[in-house]
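Hi V.,

Quick status before I head out on leave. The structure for the redesign project is tokenized and pasted below; the design run finished overnight.
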């Protein structure tokens, strides 16, 4: 085996500073056969001398050839450099046994041809408009000090013209930049130095010229107006600095709300300005407004300066009260929802509850305050957070309502109602009358009930929006509308492309949480639906983002139930898929869906206490942690449950039952009352307090035994003293008897309860 190279020496030549692309290649070839004991061939290269880069690249061309690429150093000065490169081929990494006649040594020479140089390689000038920058010198160095030093200098401007002047001497070039005819800004040019009596290439010198204005640049101003902002903080001043002496100026604003109160001055005076309090008060909360103040020098040749003033209005804003109506002389927890709470200093002292006195106030982050209070003064109470500017704060009205002694009444309201909601402020019931295609209203006038309706074709469901200020209505054709509860006129409407699904009827209507969202079942294109919500602030429908680890199966569902304070939401996923998915729940304070801890799956009849601490699911009552309080067992074997309502305070269950068969002696509906105020785990069956036969007008049109009583809906007044029943013909108002004699009846055996499906 023998190794040879195609060169016995290396020679490189280039002009000083132009080594790029200069290289030489050496090809090594193996002749003969490699030793059989050789498993790997190692190549080592050693470079002596300063002119060649030590990292010589190796490229394997074939099993018998390799190429070595040699590069010179780019920083070499003019002159001739010599050295040698030694190549080794070895059988081991330490190269203790060279092979093939190696080492092979190749001498090299590198000739660097001197060239003209111009130093420094670039020029930077700074001055103010109307002035000249100090001269700078370019030194021109020739490779032969005895050569003729003739050069030509040309100028190429990128911005502006004629602002460079060049004065050439024997060994240097003096360069001056003048801003006499330039406005403030940045300018650039190239100076090209070309030797006339030398073969060196031309050298290009980049030039940068910064021209400052007569006035110094001004910083932009950003102001956030919050609850602590005072009148004095709406006025400000900005010093006007100049880069030259003797500058006078005037100032102007491009917006009416930004008023310049000192509009002229001299060097180092300040421009003064203020924000119009009237304009600020009219702005939408959490909006930003930006205006510009321009400072103009009195001499027209001098450039103006400007700065922006941005104002963001972030007054604490109350959006939702949950609940928005309380009973007089009762203690309650009030959830106040909004934004901007975290930045309020002294929030407790700034929070106003009208004529009500809080027991405790607990701020929770930027969007929630919880207040425990006793509603001891009837009327309307404005809940707001004051501000130092004395603007009327973004607030909501809390209604404290006296007990209304409704009397028994039968109000003709024909048509099948899918859902019925009670408005305690207006003493009205709103029903989604799917048979008539209307939103039907029944209002208490003080002496009786008045009914009216508005046509809503294909009406699907109804609910009360946040604060009870709007009625939300959906249709099976995919329309969502907000109605004025006073006039029933439409104030907002949208069409949702996915539509709204018809899920099992509960009679409860659309659930609205105290974070300003109403909950909807969307995507009716198939049986697999989605849980969405209508956001009242943005007036849009959004798909709920559910954590990936939560198991959801919204097949022919979900349907929901809501506590009256808007805090506890129950979500029933499906009743028609196996395995049956668990019931979910969410507290609006955290907005996180969770599985219940008691393996509750689904029900068609449910009712929650106002605070969500009790839930009636068909005939079983659970506490807030879904521990079983007890079951309301009907003692009469001849009666079967139709629907149930929980009292607002969660202390009683009102269970409506119908005769089981046509042979029953009493073919009237019966109301059973159970005590649900007991502690969890104390007894399996709720104590029975009383039972009453309802007026015969309360009808459950059914074929007895068919268990098809879904047209009957029930709800309860805010004080818990009146039940409202609707069927396909009437609204029946039933005052709850004052149970003075609470005889606990012995429970008789009752057949298993099979609740009717609601479609």
């Amino acid at each position: 085996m023998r190794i040879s190279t195609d060169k016995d020496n290396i020679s490189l030549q280039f002009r000083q500073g132009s080594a790029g692309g200069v290289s030489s290649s050496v090809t090594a070839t193996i002749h003969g056969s490699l030793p059989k004991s050789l498993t790997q061939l190692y190549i080592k290269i050693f470079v002596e001398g300063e002119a060649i880069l030590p990292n010589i690249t190796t490229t394997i061309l074939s099993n018998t050839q390799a190429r070595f690429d040699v590069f010179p150093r780019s920083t070499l000065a003019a002159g001739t450099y010599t050295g040698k490169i030694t190549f080794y081929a070895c059988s081991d990494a330490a190269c203790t046994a060279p092979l093939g006649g190696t080492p092979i040594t190749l001498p090299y020479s590198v000739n660097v041809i001197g060239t003209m140089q111009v130093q420094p390689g670039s020029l930077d000038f700074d001055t103010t408009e109307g002035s000249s920058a100090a001269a700078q010198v370019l030194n021109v160095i020739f490779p032969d000090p005895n050569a003729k030093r003739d050069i030509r200098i040309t100028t190429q401007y990128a911005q502006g013209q004629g602002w460079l002047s060049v004065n050439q001497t024997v060994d240097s070039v003096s360069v001056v930049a003048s801003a006499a005819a330039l406005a403030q800004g940045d300018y650039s040019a190239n100076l090209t130095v070309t030797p006339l009596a030398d073969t060196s290439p031309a050298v290009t010198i980049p030039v940068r010229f910064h021209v400052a204005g007569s006035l110094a640049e001004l910083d932009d101003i950003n102001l956030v107006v919050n609850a602590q902002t005072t009148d004095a903080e709406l006025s400000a001043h900005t010093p006007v600095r100049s880069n030259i002496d003797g500058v006078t100026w005037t100032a102007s604003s491009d917006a009416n709300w930004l008023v310049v109160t000192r509009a002229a001055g001299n060097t180092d005076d300040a421009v003064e300005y203020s924000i119009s309090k009237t304009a600020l008060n009219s702005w939408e909360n959490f909006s930003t407004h930006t205006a510009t103040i321009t400072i103009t020098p009195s001499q027209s040749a001098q450039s103006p300066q400007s700065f922006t003033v941005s104002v963001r209005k972030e007054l604490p804003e109350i959006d939702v009260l949950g609940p928005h109506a309380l009973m007089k002389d009762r203690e309650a927890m009030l959830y106040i929802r909004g934004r901007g709470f975290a930045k309020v200093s002294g929030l407790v002292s700034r929070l106003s509850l009208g004529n009500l006195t809080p027991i405790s106030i607990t701020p929770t982050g930027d969007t929630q305050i919880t207040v425990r209070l006793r509603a001891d003064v009837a009327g309307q109470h404005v809940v707001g957070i004051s501000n130092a500017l004395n603007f009327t704060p973004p607030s909501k009205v809390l209604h404290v309502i006296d007990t209304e002694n409704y009397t028994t009444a039968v109000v003709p309201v024909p048509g099948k109602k899918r859902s019925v909601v009670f408005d305690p402020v207006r003493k009205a019931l709103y029903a989604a009358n799917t048979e008539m295609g209307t939103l039907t209203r029944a209002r208490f006038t003080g002496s009786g009930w008045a009914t009216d309706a508005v046509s809503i074709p294909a009406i699907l469901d109804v609910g009360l929006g946040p604060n009870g200020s709007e009625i939300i209505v959906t249709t099976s054709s995919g329309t969502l509308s907000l109605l004025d509860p006073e006039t029933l006129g439409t104030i907002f409407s949208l069409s949702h492309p996915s539509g709204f699904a018809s899920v099992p009827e509960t009679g409860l209507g659309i659930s609205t949480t105290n974070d300003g969202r109403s909950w909807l079942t969307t995507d009716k294109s198939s049986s697999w639906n989605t849980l969405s919500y209508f956001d009242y602030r943005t007036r849009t429908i959004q798909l709920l983002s559910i954590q990936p680890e939560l198991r959801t199966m919204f097949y022919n569902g979900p349907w929901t139930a809501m506590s009256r304070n808007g805090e506890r939401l129950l979500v029933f996923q499906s009743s028609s898929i196996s395995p049956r998915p668990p019931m979910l729940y969410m507290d609006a304070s955290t907005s996180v869906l969770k599985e219940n801890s008691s393996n509750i799956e689904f029900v068609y009849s449910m009712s929650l206490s106002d605070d969500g601490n009790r839930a009636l699911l068909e005939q079983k009552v659970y506490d807030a942690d879904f521990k079983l309080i007890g079951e309301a067992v009907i003692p009469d074997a001849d009666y079967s449950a139709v629907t149930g309502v929980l009292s607002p305070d969660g202390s009683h269950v009102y269970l409506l039952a119908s005769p089981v068969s046509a042979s029953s002696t009493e073919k009237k509906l019966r109301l059973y009352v159970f005590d649900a105020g007991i502690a969890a785990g104390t007894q399996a069956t709720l104590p029975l307090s009383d039972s009453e036969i309802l007026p015969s007008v309360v009808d459950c049109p059914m074929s007895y035994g068919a268990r098809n009583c879904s047209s009957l809906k029930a709800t309860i007044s805010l004080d818990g003293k009146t039940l409202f029943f609707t069927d396909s013909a009437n609204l029946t108002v039933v005052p709850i008897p004052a149970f003075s004699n609470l005889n606990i009846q012995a429970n008789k055996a009752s057949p298993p309860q099979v609740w009717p499906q609601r479609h």
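Above is the designed sequence. The chain is about 0% helix and 45% strand.

G. will cover questions while I'm gone.

Best,
W.
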